[in-house]
Amino acid sequence: MFKPKKFRDLSRRDLWLAITPVVLIALAAFVFAFRVIEPAPPNSIVISTGAVDGGYHMFALRYQEILARDGVKLELRPSAGSQENVSRLLDDTSAVEVGFLQGGSAFSTNAPDLVSLGSIYYEPLWVFYRGPEIHDFGALQGRKLAIGPEESGTRALALQLLAVNAAVMPPTMLLPDSGQHAADLLLHGKLDAVFLVGPPESPLIEQLMSAPGIRLLSLDRAEAYTRRFPALTRLTLPQGVFDFVKNVPAHDVTLISPTANLLAVDGLHPALSYLLMRAASEVHGGAGLLHKAGDFPAPLNAEFPLSDEATRYYKSGPPFLQRYLPYWGAVLVDRLWLTLLPVVALLIPLGRSIPTVYRWRVRSRIYRWYAKLKEVELELDEKSAPEKLKELLERLDQIERAVNRINTPLAYTDNLYAFRQNVDLVRQRVRTQIAGEG
Description:
Elements: H1 4-36, E1 44-48, H2 55-68, E2 73-77, H3 82-90, E3 98-102, E4 114-122, E5 125-129, E6 144-146, H4 153-163, E7 173-175, H5 179-187, E8 193-197, H6 203-209, E9 215-216, H7 222-228, E10 233-237, E11 253-257, E12 259-265, H8 270-284, H9 308-316, H10 320-324, H11 327-367, H12 369-380, H13 386-404, H14 413-437
Helix pairs in contact: 1-11, 2-8, 12-13, 12-14, 13-14
């Protein structure tokens, strides 16, 4: 008797048994891909900055506040300067992934695993000095100069500029003092000049600009230095820009300036790279004393190659998802998208196997009875006694009744009818043999 509900239940069961392995394989592939192919970005970054009273550290503190809004911790590690920052980035045991670099520091040698996230602002070379007015580095020969510690970009740049003016050898005294300590020595007359590299917004620069008896070196040959050292840019500090009332500075000052740059290890997670560049845009994207709004960050420094993320960022802006979603939401959607691509590629061939598996399961319930039918045929070939032949007929009837109870989808009933015809053929042979025996 036809039983629709039982038939439907059995069909659903066959279908689910065909689909379930595909679903499980796809799920396992998704979990594997989600964990391995596109791992989640870490929730912390370590950045090597510079002196605690310097511009790098000052800006890193602002980055820290911005990244904290997206739940990312930025750990600041002060350093002696650019050279130490590069050394930390190259040291696999330091955990430092990002650092500041002064352009033109010549630290890019043997650093193929580092990439640039872009230049973030001009950081001019400020040479504050005591005594009569001078207009070039050669006039500092034989004086007592503070040019920064051994691993700083300031020292590296100062040595290059003093060397081309033959002012680096004795009796010139080159001291490693820097920052506020060097400024205090200059203010108290214990130094003739101090070399500083930093943004004009630095409190230390503002302090020395208005200090009595202290002058700022304005270069007559600034353009020549930019031709000799391509990492440098000629800048003009306008008269009165620091203080209109006191007219500080009292006249236009010509400076030369490298750029401050963000460096990263080549393996920095793309999501964190974009997050850092967005923070840099927020901090440095406005107008400053020496640049216009929108000038920074920018792909200006060529000492290190731009990362792939930086190239895309400066060409097209932030990724599409990060423009409209919170950071972690964009990261999650991006990971899901990248994870689903290989899973979909796997599902296409697996999905094609579902009809085959389903067809095999339906037909297998009929096909397994062919073994029973074959047994009857083999025994029939043995020329059995009449009693045995009657037993074979009963077995054929049992086989047919069992097969008739199999619920088969309409699309596969041809297999059922074909089996019944085969049973009838064998039954006819048995009856013929019984008749012959009679």
